[in-house]
Amino acid sequence: MAGLGLAINARTLINRSNAQLWVLASLVVLIWFAFTLVDPNFANSVFVTYPLLRDAATFTVVGLAQMTALSIGHMNLAVGRMAAVAAMVAGISFQFFGASLLVGALLGIAAAALLGVLTGVIIVVSNVNSFIVTLAMDFLLVGFVALVYTRLTTAAAFTVKPDGMKYLGRASLADICAGPVCGPRFMPMLLIPALVIVGYMIWIYRRSRFGRELIAIGNSMRASAAAAIPTRRRVIQAHALSAALAGAAGIMVVISNGAATAAIGSEFMIPSFLGPLLGGTSLLGGAVSVIGTIFGTLLTFVLRSGLTTHGVGLEALNISLGVLLLLVLSVQSFSRIRGQMRMAKARMVRVRASAAGSRR
Amino acid sequence: MTHRTRRITRLLGAIAAGTLLFAGCSANSASSGSASPEPASAEESAEGTSGDDTSAADSSAGSAGDVMPLSEIKVALVNGGPHPYYASWPDAAAQAKKDFGLADVTFDDTSEWDQTKQNALLDSLAARGYNAFAVFGVSPADINSTFEHLRDEGFAVGSVTSCPAGDKDSAYFCLSTDVEQAAYEATKALIDTLGGEGSIVHVTGLLVDSNTQRRIEGVEKAVAESNGKIKLVQHISDIDNDLQTAEKAVTDLLVSRGSEVDGIVGTSTVSAEGAIAAVKKANLPIKIMAIDDTEPILDGIRDGSVAGTMVQNPWGQAYVGAYVVAKLQSGQCTINEDGIYVDSGSFLVGKDNVDTFDAKRIEKSKSLIDDFNNKYLTCKG
Predict the structure, then answer these.
(1) What is the pLDDT of residues A65-123, one digit of tens each?
(2) What angle (nearest 5°) sits at the alpha carbon of residue B74, between those of residues B70 and B78?
(3) Closest CA to B45 of A324, A47, A91
């Protein structure tokens, strides 16, 4: 009986998520074409499409960082500061130790992942809500990052660029050629690491046992523990993964902006929720959508870029994003209530049938 | 993975592949060996090329090439976000358009102090046909990458109000106040007002901003020159976001150590305004030396609650900046020394000149135009 309930619930979730994905993908395409029709400048590959895709690539990774925490029903409010720490560690390794881009980036991501482990351990040991723990971590890191920058730099930034950083930040797929044909110029090179991360996350949540266990924990921590899932270890690992992804996004900002500064990540928190939530990830855990996160992020950037190209201020964008998010959350809530009602109805039918059977 | 999910994934993949085909791949010859996007023709970019890849051209601004009339130049004055400092920029933009016969001069900001958003704004302005840029970079540490990007695309770009952090300036020029020198002079003026001895507090903006670091150095230099007669009680930073935060921070300090403080030097507008409000409410005999010329500061000078203010030249930065980038983009002039720093001027304003200092700023702005024409630019004809 419980298995049947879970199956119905899972099917409802998948159907709802697919429908939402379709709506989102259509919205992105429609808004893109609408902006282009109104003003052909929006199709400019150099000044609109390239920066739009570069920023969307970075913020998709930010969204995936938050999505990982959301998958177990937690939040990561320190997503921006973890990115700042990764950027800072990479910057220090470039500036003082002459590290290569790859080594610096890996060190930065590892530092962020360690912070994630620490966050997870605090949550598991103290049993305090992730909202509180990551909020406290955010405050702690704001001060720590500012302290390091003011002590170690005179310009509040690490500006040494290792070989390849400038190239990676400004190159496009036009630099990758197969014979006479090269990639499109409007696609930034930074799409490649973002797509690798997206591929990895799809594999985790669709193919790996680890991903399935994270979703199970998000659905019910107690049921997962009863099913012999090592819930405490998985919570720590989920926070480590979330932090590592935030760190990767921080490194991507360093690459595209050309320096590591304390301000990196300060604008991450709200967009980190927007992408996943618009894409169908549940705020309560247990349902994620990697592809949805891409389209959710793309939608916000298409809106932003379109409005900016039309000379409309960011205030209008923030209002439109707020309205959009409220609509999506309302639809999610409505669908959840409808799903619960369907399940209750099905349960009632089964109970009646079973009662009728026993009477016979 | 369900059958339906697989179908959706395949369809999305097909959309992505279709987009690639629709957009078209570039030919190898167009990009071989290039480490960065091909420089675009400024003229093509300015007209909005509607999705076509712009062709390579070597008509970068400031170099010898075809000369355009200024009536074909569209200048964008871009700051980092909303701030009272930029109140005069729309007027400067309109005046520059009229005086120099430019096609357009617009003033824009991102509404949010974020470098990534400012970069997106600059790109969108380029897509809308603006081809010369006078920019106050949000992040002095990484604004050089933005300047390099704009120059690679064939646009003239000047750094105004603030120079990039470090020794390198990738813009053609930097026209700004020397923030360290202004902070130094303001502190010296405060020390003079105090009679050469006492204890002072420094209130300022974001600690992790390189300009704040330079202001701190200016204040400390002036204090060090007093040979121990002036004690620097504290730097209070990160209070430039809003007046309430600034006022509360200074009030907290005055509650605990108000009797020790003889003077306050404010090196950012909002922090100085916060100090004025807090001192007025505490009713303490503390001398204040402020920065900029907002109404609360000028009113404070008039009623005697503020000893003076170090006024910068925002109008001149926008007006002269628009002129120079337009001249460079048109090809009429080239810059003599790439990345040159030019001081836009700062003036100490007290009770005696509070109602007359504006004339001095306009005079300075005109002399800056002359300086550029005669010293920093080489113009054809």
Answers:
(1) 999 999 999 999 999 999 999 999 999 999 999 999 999 999 999 999 999 999 999 99
(2) 130
(3) A47
Three-state DSSP class for residue B275: helix
Is any Cβ of chain B less than 8 angstroms from the Cβ of A175?
Answer: yes
List where CATH 3.40.50.2300 sits in chain B. Answer: 63-177+314-345+356-379, 179-311
Range of the domain at A284: 2-174+182-349
| CATH number of the domain within which A187 lies | 1.10.3470
To the nearest whole angstrom, how far is the Cα of A274 from the nearest Cα of chain B?
17
| A306 close contact with B: CB closer than 8 A | no
CB B127 within 8 A of CB A48: yes
Residue A155 near chain B (CB below 8 Å): yes
The pLDDT tens digits for B348-379 are 999 999 988 888 888 999 999 999 999 999 99
CATH topology of domain B63-177+314-345+356-379: Rossmann fold (3.40.50)
Beta strands in A100-255 (DSSP E): 157-158, 177-178, 181-182
For A1, residues 6+ apart whose C-beta sits below 8 A from its C-beta are A350
In a domain, A356, yes or no: no
Q: What's domain B179-311's superfamily in CATH?
A: Response regulator (3.40.50.2300)
Closest-approach residue (CA) in chain B for A38: B50
Asked if residues B325 and B157 have their Cβ atoms less than 8 Å apart, the reply is yes
